[in-house]
What we know:
single chain, 11 strands, 9 helices, 8-stranded mixed sheet, 301 residues
Amino acid sequence: MTATVLDPSTVAKDYRAEVRAAVEASGRTPRVVGLLSQAEGPAATYAHYATRGAAAVGIEMDLRRVEPADAARAIADANLDREVDGIFLYYPLASREDDRWMRELVDPRKDVEGMHSYWSRLLYENRRFVDEEQTRRAILPCTPLAILKLLQHAGMRGTGGEAPLEGVTACVINRSDIVGRPLSAMLANDGARVHSLDLTGSVVFEPAIGRRAHDVRDSGIDRAEALAQADVIITGVPSRSFELVRGDEIREGAICVNVAEVENFDDSIMERASVYVPRVGPLTIAMAMRNLVRLSGALPA
């Protein structure tokens, strides 16, 4: 078996078309403020591509360079500006602890990244809609949402039980608040069993089948066992010292997704995996723009 490489840019085309159509139908140009404190590095690169991605679907990205000490004020100004439809933060804005607080300062109604605790609470409670009438969908974090869409395009399917991913076992090597934790919850909410690994150990997100939300417990499972069981493997380790996932560690036909800026998989996985996704960025941007038009009401539930 030789793995098929799935290009996220190809998958993003349909979602960009959906967003572009919603923008055109709205009759106005939505405006997003992007706040960036880094002149170089991954955050600056991400901001550059996000600006291009927004323009491609008819959305104006107002990218603003801010000093870390001024970031909170810049967020407040964007919250109050009626001409601003969405806010995009490019991390790190300040320190790790300050950045967590910055996410809470963004008005949830303008949170295109879906990282505010208002949206997180709905996610972890497995509540798909904001209202009882189910006319307004909850906003999901854009990077985990992009990964989920890529997995669907890669052929991830459950066994056809009560939930779409019932019977799927996943391994997520990353438990950050931005990617790994919400992704694990989203997979479990759809019925998958998820082994979540990071430097502090391993936990399992149990499937939310017949329940409103998933359960999380310590698993004690090690890397070798988690990888050997997984139908789907997602890695997001930003360190070059990470021990690459090898072909002999994974099961035949597994779907592998590399989220980190550096490679987390050894070339040998190409001989055992069914699908390999080398990056996620282009679809993350498309999902952020999709969140924007959903927040604005231009995209139906």
